[in-house]
Design brief:
Elements (H helix, E strand, L loop, with lengths): L1 E8 L3 H12 L4 E4 L13 E2 L4 H7 L2 H6 L3 E10 L2 E13 L2 H15 L2 E3 L4 E6 L4 E5 L4 E9 L14 E12 L8 E6 L2 E7 L5 E7 L1 H6 L4 H8 L13 E6 L11 E3 L14 H16 L7 H33 L2 H11 L2 H11 L9 E2 L1
Parallel strand pairs: 1-2, 1-9, 2-6, 4-11, 9-15
Antiparallel strand pairs: 3-5, 4-5, 5-16, 7-8, 8-9, 10-13, 10-14, 11-12, 12-13
Helix pairs in contact: 1-4, 1-7, 7-8
The structure holds flavin-adenine dinucleotide.
Flavin-adenine dinucleotide binds next to helix 1, strand 3, strand 10, strand 13 and strand 14.
């Protein structure tokens, strides 16, 4: 059995960021990722400007560009026939999760983490002085702490992060005749859509649909997207639709002293604002740094680390969570969309509030294009 300081379950953005920081801090880290990369992940593939700093601290801007990542500095929202456009004061990044997650996990490996992939965690046993993790391949790893970064935290005694009832997330890639050139959000009755250019001349489309919309279209994502976006031509789709539930939850405190939760396993906001990758990177970075501090792995210190993480996480979600929930409700209800439309003509006010509550820099510099 391998013995290490920390085992990280999941090699997505949260797990990779945590592993980088712990390995850099001198810890012996094992990361277990169940899927071979690159893999498809249901995601709009927009990395919020709130996350630019932490992302670029893990992968430099030059490396991101070499991977084909694009900078996005315009935002567009289509509500009915009205189109609202803004310059974003600080550029965001757009990159497929195939490319991004593989690069982040490679970064963790080069920092010194030992990556087991593809390999899945089957169960975790919690004891006084250690955790024992059993792997699907039959092996076992013993660690002083476990970091749940599997997108749900299902192996933590506190249980899995809940999903929003009745919401489905879907994603595919399109090859469009022209680049989109911005982040484009479409509001519609029962759901919303995000579109963005990613590498290799592809565009990502991610949609979130309520149960009513799914029912009306018999679960056919092409038909749903056609109803939400007048310009959609299913012949432009170059990958299969993938679907998933949509996680939505406040901070879930870990259920054992040796257990830590990051990313969606710790809490999740509605996808509307593209905040999830940022929260995953931020929390992985935070937990990794705190655990690799001198003496942090001692039994007497772990509770204090958990409390600091909990306080920081609750602070991050305090306004983001209701703001993302509200934006999600507004975009999927035409009556509410019509009510907010006049405000959108004053971006430094309306979008400025959004920028402030979601921690993005430059709210005062937002201008209609
Ligand atoms: C429709 C939709 C659109 C979205 N759009 C955006 C967007 O544009 N921008 C944004 O920032 N966020 C977006 N999000 C949210 C974002 O995808 C998540 O917040 C983010 O992926 C969370 O990262 P994570 O590292 O916590 O978990 P994940 O990305 O889910 O990574 C978890 C990893 O753990 C692995 N794993 C799971 N179980 C095991 C196991 N037992 N053993 C080993 N490995 C395991 C998985 O294979 C996976 O690689 C969107 C979400 C949805 C549903």
């Amino acid at each position: 059995m391998r013995v290490c300081d920390a085992i990280v379950i999941g090699g997505g953005p949260a797990g990779a960021a945590a592993a980088v920081r712990m390995a850099e801090g001198g810890m012996d880290v094992v990361v277990v990722e169940s899927r071979a990369f690159p893999r498809v992940k249901v995601c709009g593939e927009f990395v919020s400007p709130a996350a630019t700093g932490v992302l670029e601290s893990l992968i430099s801007a030059r490396e991101l560009e070499a991977l084909g990542a694009g900078r996005v500095d315009r935002f567009e929202i289509l509500t009915g026939r009205a189109v609202h456009r803004w310059w974003m004061p600080r550029a965001a990044w757009a990159l497929s999760r195939g490319g991004l997650d593989a690069a982040l996990l490679a970064r963790a490996e080069s920092a010194g983490a030992w990556v087991l992939q593809p390999e899945a965690v089957r169960g975790v046993e919690y004891a006084e002085e250690s955790v024992r993790v059993s792997l699907r391949g039959g092996g076992e790893v013993s660690a002083r702490v476990v970091v749940h970064a599997d997108g749900s935290g299902r192996h933590d005694p506190a249980g899995a992060t809940p999903n929003a009832r009745g919401l489905v997330g879907q994603k595919c890639h399109l090859r469009l005749p022209e680049a989109i050139g911005c982040v484009r959000m479409l509001a519609c009755d029962g759901g919303y859509v995000g579109l963005i250019d990613v590498e290799d001349g592809l565009a990502t489309v991610a949609l979130v649909a309520g149960a009513g919309l799914v029912r009306r279209h018999g679960g056919d994502a092409d038909s749903m997207l056609g109803a939400m976006w007048m310009g959609y031509d299913a012949a432009q789709r170059v990958s299969a639709w993938c679907s998933t539930g949509v996680a939505r939850s406040g901070y879930v405190a870990p259920g054992d002293l040796r257990s830590f939760r990051v990313g969606n396993a710790a809490g999740a906001v509605d996808p509307v604002g593209g905040e999830g990758i940022g929260l995953a990177l931020w929390s992985g970075d935070l937990v990794g740094r705190l655990l690799s501090a001198e003496g942090a792995l001692e039994r007497g210190a772990l509770g204090g680390v958990q409390r600091r993480v909990g306080a920081a996480y609750r602070g991050r979600l305090r306004w983001r969570r209701p703001a993302c929930r509200l934006a999600s409700e507004v975009l999927s209800r035409p009556v509410l969309t019509a009510c907010v439309r006049p405000l959108l003509w004053m971006p430094s006010l309306s979008v400025g509030v959004w920028y402030r509550v979601t921690g993005k820099p430059g709210a005062r510099r937002l201008q209609e294009t």
